[in-house]
Amino acid sequence: MTENPDKRKAGLYRDDGTEINMELVIKPSLCLTCKNDYNAEEEILCILTRDDQRDEQVFICDAYEQKKS
Questions:
Q1: Which residues contact residue 65 at a Cβ distance below 8 angstroms, ignoring those fewer than 6 apart?
Q2: I need a surface site. Which of 34, 37, 60, 68 has the fewest CB within 10 A?
């Protein structure tokens, strides 16, 4: 078994080293209309984008694609 050299467990971390609790990242309403919502391949990117903009007034996502009706 390989030891994690910086003693952190696997997961997502902010630039300052604090862990991102994926269960607590708020999903903006824009995400509900995106074709990538609930896409397992895009989930990590989506969580990082949401968390990165957590303090912003307006949420902007360059990967957004509207769901087809």
A1: 34, 35, 36
A2: 68
| Rounded-to-integer distance, Cα 41 and Cα 20, Å | 18
What does the alpha-carbon distance between residue 4 and residue 21 come to, in Å, rounded to a whole number?
A: 19
pLDDT digits (tens, 9 = 90+) for 49-61: 999 999 999 999 9
Looking up tokens 């467990």 gives 9
Dihedrals phi, psi of 19, to nearest 5 degrees: -75, 145
Domain ranges of the chain: 27-69
Amino acid at 4: N
Tokens of 4: 């994690």
The pTM of the full predicted model, rounded to 2 decimals, is: 0.80
